C-alpha cells in the first residue's frame, strides 16, 4: 500500500494560546504556546498572567511598546517598554536552521526564567510569571522548543522528545491530519541533535 503525504495542510482551528504544562518544577510557572494573534493580545496575556514571551519566528515581529522611552522624539519608530519581558529567537519554519539554534532556544527559554532583573526604572518588567512560546501559528517552531525544554527539564515525565511532542499535540489541540508537520520533521531532527549536544556539554562540565 502506498502512503501519500499531503502536499498542503488544511488549517485546522486551534486556540490563540494553549496551556501546555502547569507548575513546572523549580520555577512553579505555567508554559503556554500560542500563535501570532494570541501573542499580540495584551489583555489575554494579562488574563493568563504571562510575564515572559519567547518569539521563535524570524518572520514575525510584534510591536509591544506601550511606554515610550524618554529618548523617543517621534522621528523614528516607537521604542520603549512593553507589558512583558520579550525575547526573540529567529527560527525558520522548515530547512535552513542549525541544531545550535534549536539548542539556543532551550537555553534562552531556561535563562529567561532564571534571569534576575535589576530594580531600576528602566527595567519595567521584573516579575517572574508564566511563559509563552510563540511562532506564527504555534504549531511547529514553538512546539519544537517547548518539547525540547520539557524533555530536558522533566525527563521523568517526558523521557523522550517524542513523548513531549505527543503531549503538546494534545494540549495545543493539533489535529492528527497535521501531525506530519507539527512540528516540521527537520526541526525534530535538529532537536534530537540538540539533545545530544546538551548532554555532551553537561558531560564536559561534569569532568
Describe this protein's structure.
About 35% of the residues lie in helices and about 15% in strands. It has a single domain, classed as Alpha-Beta Complex (Protein-Tyrosine Phosphatase, Chain A). The chain contains 6 helices and 7 strands, in the order ββααββββαβααα. Mean pLDDT is about 95; it is low at about 1-5. The longest helix is centred in the C-terminal third of the chain and has 22 residues, at about 185-205. The strands form 2 sheets. It has a 5-stranded mixed β-sheet. Strands 4-5 form a two-stranded antiparallel ribbon. The N and C termini lie far apart (about 50 Å). By secondary structure, it is of the alpha/beta class. InterPro entries: Prot-tyrosine_phosphatase-like (IPR029021), Tyr_Pase_dom (IPR000387). This is Protein phosphatase.
